[in-house]
C-alpha cells in the first residue's frame, strides 16, 4: 500500500527526512514513533500530497504522490495533528461540505453523511454548532470527515493528542474497527501504550531515518545490546523475594516492596521463567506477572539519549 | 454548484459584517449624495442659474468616485484574508487534500468576495438612481460605471487572493493588498504627473491631447482613470483609452489568477 524509498525532505536547520525507507502492506496498522522533530509529520504530509519531497520515491497503492496527486487523494484520508474545523458551521453542514468537496454524488451525500454521523457517534450533535464541540468531539468530527470518501489508507498525525482517557479509548475502538474493515492505517503518536494496543507493527523514526521496527533490530552503527524487558511481579507479602531476584544473573531489581518487584530482565522469557520458578520454589505466592510495555523499553533504548 | 462558493456565501452572510458593512456603505453613499447636492446647489451657484442636468451629472460623478473609493477600501478586507483564514484555522490542508482543484478553491473565494461586493453595488443602486432622476446622466452611464467598477474590483480581488495564498497571516496579506491599492490609485497618478510635468517643460505649447501614449502608461493602471474613461465611452467621446485600461486590468487579473492557482497548489509547504 505504501512504498517509500530514499525519501528526503530537508528544512532549513537540517530537520526533516533523510533517505527514509518504508514499506507498508495492505491492511496493516502501522505506528510511527519518534521524538519531536524526527520527521513523522513530514512523512505523513508527503504521503498526503501536501509536501513535495526533495528526492526519493513515495507511492501509495503504486501511485506517485508527486505526479499523481488527485488519484492519491481519492484513496487517502489525512487527519492532521491539529483538527481544523469551520467553527461557524453546523456539524452536519461541515460533513456535507466535505462530502461535496470529495465529489460524493448529491443523491447519496446525505446518506453517506448520515452513516458517518452514526458511526462516529455524532448523530445527536449533528445539528449543533461545531464551535460548541469539545476537543474530543472535534477530533471525532475530523476523523468522520476523513472517512467520508472511504479511503483505503488513513494517515493520522498525533490523533490522540489532547484527548481525555475516554476519548482516547473511543478513538482506539474506532481505529481497531477500521483496521478490521481492511483499511490500512499509518498513525503517529507519542502515546506508546495506545500504539502498542492497536498497531500490527511499530516503526521507529529519528533524525529523518527509519531506525527499525518492533521485532526487528534497530538500525545503527553499532548493534545495540538485546533489549531488556521490564516485568512487574506481584505476590503475597514475602521478605525473601527481592533477595531471590537479586541472586539471578541478568536480572536487575528496579523497585521492590513487600508484595511487588519491578525487574529489568535481560535474556528473554527463559530468564523470566527462572525468576518465577525460583520464587515459587521458595514458597512465594505469585499473584501476577506482567510485562511493562516492551515498546516503552525499546523506545527508551533507541531514543533515551535524544 | 461549486461547494466552495456555497460554503463561502453561507459563512460570509452569517458574519456580523455581513449586515454591518452594507449598512455603513449605504450611510456613506447617502452622505455623499447629500454632500454633493449641497455643494452643487449652494446659494451662490443657484443665483448663477443652475441646470438640473448639471446637478445630476455632478452628483453622479461624485457618487461613482466615492463608490469606487469605498469598494477599494473594502475589497482587501474580503479577498486578502480569504485563504489566510483557512491557514489560520488549519482548514486549508483539508481543502487541498480533498478533490477540490486549486481553481475551484480560488473561484469559490473570488465569487464570494465579488458577490458580496455585488451586493453592495446593488444596495447602492437606488442612491445612484437619485442622480439619474435629476438628469444629465442616463442608464448607459450607470451601466458603464457599474461594469468598470466591477472589473476594477475583480482585479483587486484577484490581487488580494494572490496575497492571501502567498502569506501565512491575514494581517500581512491585507497590508500588502492595501499597499497595492495605494500603488495603483495614488502612486501611478504621482508618477504620471511627474512625467507629464517633465514632458510639458520640454514641449511648451503642445496641446495636452498630443501627450504620447507611453507617458500615460501609469494612468492605465490607475482605477480612477479607468472609471473616468468609462464615462468617456458612455458619452461616446472615446473608446480606445477605456479598452486599453480594460486590457491592462484583464492582464493583471489573469496573471494573478494563474499565480494564485500555483500558490494554492503549493501551499502545503506553508502548513
SSE diagram, text form:
The complex is a heterodimer of chains A (306) and B (271).
Chain A: E1 2-10, E2 16-24, E3 29-33, H1 40-47, E4 55-60, E5 63-64, H2 69-75, E6 76-79, H3 91-101, H4 106-120, H5 135-147, E7 153-157, H6 165-180, E8 184-188, H7 192-198, E9 201-206, E10 209-213, E11 229-235, H8 241-246, E12 251-257, E13 260-265, H9 268-281, E14 286-292, H10 294-303
Parallel strand pairs in A: 3-8, 3-9, 6-7, 7-8
Antiparallel strand pairs in A: 1-2, 1-4, 4-5, 9-10, 11-13, 11-14, 12-13
Helix pairs in contact in A: 3-4, 4-5
Chain B: H1 3-14, H2 17-40, H3 43-47, H4 52-79, H5 84-88, H6 92-96, H7 102-134, H8 139-166, H9 170-202, H10 217-220, H11 223-234, H12 240-265
Report on this structure.
The complex is a heterodimer of chains A (306) and B (271). Helices cover 35% and strands 27% of the residues of chain A. Chain A has ten helices and 14 strands. In chain A, the strands form three sheets. Chain A has a six-stranded mixed β-sheet with strand order 6-7-8-3-9-10, sandwiched between helices. In chain A, helix 3 (91-101) crosses helix 4 (106-120) and helix 4 (106-120) crosses helix 5. Chain B starts with a helix and ends in a 6-residue tail after the last helix. At the A-B interface, helix 2 and helix 3 of A face helix 1 and helix 6 of B.
